[in-house]
Design goal:
mainly beta; 4 helices
């Protein structure tokens, strides 16, 4: 590590020291910190009263933590934030992050259609990492974390660069999931879900006090699912359980322990040729259920463990300390036979390759910060100062072998897999430490949000397949910042503007210069209007942005260079409203114009891959009153425009539009006392057949077919 880097040992020691100090303070502090004030040399310190965003109900959330690390009104956040609430997740019976984010502006969550392996989420054209309660989960080359929506209170999508808050992040944004937390009110819920594709699922959610005074409370959530998929021989089975325990140590100190484990036994998306999917074939269109692998060989298992804690302490002098620590592990093992292109001069025979992928990724993340309010005359400051650290290790191995071709119009299985050749066998270690400061300034109707951060990182990749093993080391430091302003008018209209930056270190070498790859860097300017009328449950956001990424890696055959640059300009509109007459409405439109501004001759001026030029959605629900007050009906329409599958723009997929329906029957209002509810959801009602994207001419993916799910839920 370079001399500027902060070692993991020093950070761990600092964390333990802070923890010991807070524990001691919590046992001796008897002051009510919520009412404490102390005079400061610049003004008056005060402790800002904060309500966790997860406690909000309905479909129109007003606050989020994603854009500031502390609860902040979305209308006063100078970036766009989308929130999917727990009520929406339950109504639509979202079973993964892909389904949960279908109606969020600027989000492409179904990149590879119905794929049981991972959630392939892109925000503003770039892969979006998943965070849990503000801390990034372990994420390797293929070992990507998955949090079941049943374990989440809400999803928060922060769009645009977030480096000044979270360190190394892609430029498009990130997705933060908020865990279900212990409740003081007794919660007992069990559910049974069933549907097409032989789907059955059992869920349970329990919570309440463990002591009469409520100092100890708990939450236990579990899910067991068995299901086939739209592809023959591919399953989507899951076992998952999450637990949480909150201890109110004193009037000013609270500790919450959180843990969850998840195991997926499933399969892979099918890599289909463009002939028979995007382009016509003399033998007709390929069926959605086509399996191109080997039933006795293909297998996918992913196991994920997450354990950690959140500690908060309110000091009597107006300070609040927040300390989080989380350890996560993703163990990914995939054996799959997949298509690699049609046999030359054949319209029926598909060449295949066996691929074995093993990816074990472990990460420890911690974030410690102090927050306080400072009143200086007419100016109010809400200040956040913090230090976070992340340490991750990934062991990645990829082997390939050949398999006999398959007649995809008359498949016969049972081929033998040849001996394997190792393509990758690497170990990657990454350490990152960042210090940050944020000041949210309020002067009358004007809000300023200023954030600055410096990161020290150390990235080391070992090629275990070389003899002897070789190491590539990238380290350094990066400064990122954000400046934004929001002016709020009395009629609920707010106008805002911001500029934000981010970076992401890269593993490997520039084969042209022989030097380690420089981190990608990005910057974004964004302006917009938000409307949150007083006394009404509504929020509308209209934004325009200009996003530039530099140092993009350009892979041109056998060489890797770093001369790339891309630009994304876009306009997004997202609106949500709930009315007293029972109606709830939501809609979004995102128009993205992408361009590779610096690249190879074959890339220059092309669009970025996997980014639809237009995305739009509209949904509505209605709670009936009177004699039908037990019935809620909702539905929506989703549209995605055309997109390219590579930077060369050689293959283009068309647009598609699908419709969804959900109905909820509150049986407790019909037969009081049974506490029962029945939910019905149908995604892609018309069973539209469409291609989501193509990586190239040899790898195209069918979208999700009609999916029917019914759930009987009991609260007792």
């Amino acid at each position: 590590m370079s001399s500027t880097a902060v070692s993991g040992a020093r950070v761990s020691a600092l964390t333990l020291s802070l923890l010991a100090s807070v524990a001691a303070l919590s046992l001796t502090s008897h002051a009510n910190a919520q009412e404490a004030q102390s005079p400061g040399f610049l003004g008056t310190l005060y402790l800002k009263s904060e309500t966790p965003a997860a406690e909000e109900d309905g479909v129109v959330p007003k606050t989020s933590t994603a854009g500031s690390k502390v609860p902040l009104e979305i209308s006063r956040t100078p970036q766009t934030v989308s929130v999917v609430t727990g009520q929406e997740l339950a109504q639509r019976q979202a079973d993964n992050s892909t389904e949960a984010l279908r109606y969020s502006a600027g989000v492409n969550s179904e990149l590879y259609g119905s794929d049981p392996r991972s959630d392939w989420i892109r925000v503003r054209g770039f892969h979006a990492p998943e965070y849990l309660d503000g801390l990034k989960l372990a994420r390797g080359t293929f070992a990507w974390p998955r949090v079941d929506p049943y374990f989440a209170e809400r999803y928060e999508v922060l769009r645009g660069p977030a480096g000044s808050l979270y360190g190394q992040t892609p430029p498009g944004g990130l997705v933060n999931l908020v865990s279900k937390r212990p409740t003081e009110e007794t919660l007992r819920q069990v559910g049974l879900q069933f549907g097409n594709q032989n789907r059955t699922s059992i869920t349970g959610d329990f919570g309440g006090k463990l002591t009469e005074d409520g100092r100890l409370s708990y939450r236990l959530t579990a899910k067991l699912r068995q299901s086939d998929t739209q592809v023959d021989f591919v399953q989507d089975n899951r076992k998952a359980i999450a637990g949480a325990l909150t201890w109110k140590i004193g009037s000013a100190t609270e500790l919450t322990l959180l843990a969850q484990t998840l195991r997926d036994d499933a399969g892979s998306a099918q890599f289909l040729p463009s002939q028979g999917t995007v382009f016509p074939s003399p033998n007709g269109e390929l069926p959605i259920n086509l399996f191109t692998g080997e039933p006795d060989y293909d297998k996918f298992v992913m196991e994920q463990q997450v354990v950690g804690y959140d500690l908060t302490h309110d000091f009597a002098n107006g300070l609040r300390l927040s300390h989080k620590l989380r350890w996560s592990e993703v163990d990914y093992a995939l054996n799959v036979v997949r298509g690699i292109g049609m046999v030359p001069a054949s319209d029926t025979m598909l060449n295949r390759r066996a691929t074995d992928i093993y990816d074990l990724t472990r990460a420890m993340s911690t974030d410690t910060n102090l927050s306080f309010g400072l009143q200086t005359g007419a100016v109010q400051h809400d200040v956040l100062v913090g230090l976070d650290h992340r340490n991750q290790t990934s062991d990645f191995k990829l082997d390939v072998g050949l398999v006999a071709p398959l007649d995809i119009y008359n498949p016969t299985y049972g081929a033998t897999v040849t001996p394997f050749t190792t393509i990758f066998n690497t170990t990657t270690e990454m350490r990152q430490t960042g210090i940050y400061i944020q000041d949210s300034i309020e002067v009358g109707n004007l809000n300023l949000l200023l954030t600055a951060r410096n990161d020290w990182y150390d990235l080391e990749t070992t090629d275990n397949g070389a003899s002897p093993a070789t190491k590539t080391k990238n380290d350094g430091s990066e400064f990122t910042w954000r400046a934004g302003a929001v002016y709020s008018f009395d009629n609920g209209v707010s106008v805002y503007g911001s500029h934000a930056t981010s970076f992401a270190p890269l593993a490997g070498l520039n084969t042209t210069t022989g030097a380690p790859l420089e981190p990608t860097k990005s910057r974004q300017s964004e302006v917009g209007v938000k409307y949150a009328p007083a006394g009404r449950n509504a929020l509308v956001t209209l934004s325009a942005f200009d996003l530039l990424q530099e140092n993009t890696v350009v892979n041109n055959g056998t060489t890797v260079s770093q001369v790339g640059e891309s630009r994304t300009k876009g306009i997004e509109l997202e609106a949500r409203a709930a009315f007293d007459n029972g109606w709830a409405l939501g809609g979004s439109v995102a128009r993205l114009d992408t361009e590779i501004t610096v690249g190879t001759a074959a890339q220059q001026g092309n669009r970025l891959p996997f980014v639809p030029d237009l995305q739009a959605s509209l949904w509505a629900s209605y709670d009936f009153g009177g004699s039908l007050d037990w019935l809620t009906i909702g539905g929506g329409i989703r549209h995605a425009g055309s997109s390219y599958g590579s930077t060369a723009n050689t293959i283009k997929t068309g647009n598609f539009t699908v419709a969804d329906l959900n109905m909820s029957f509150d049986l407790d209002k019909v037969l009081p006392g049974d506490g029962a509810r029945f939910d019905l959801s149908i995604a892609n009602i018309t069973n539209e057949k469409y291609v989501t994207t193509c990586d190239n001419a040899d790898a195209c993916y069918w979208g999700a077919e009609r999916t029917i799910r019914g759930a009987l839920i009991f609260d007792f």
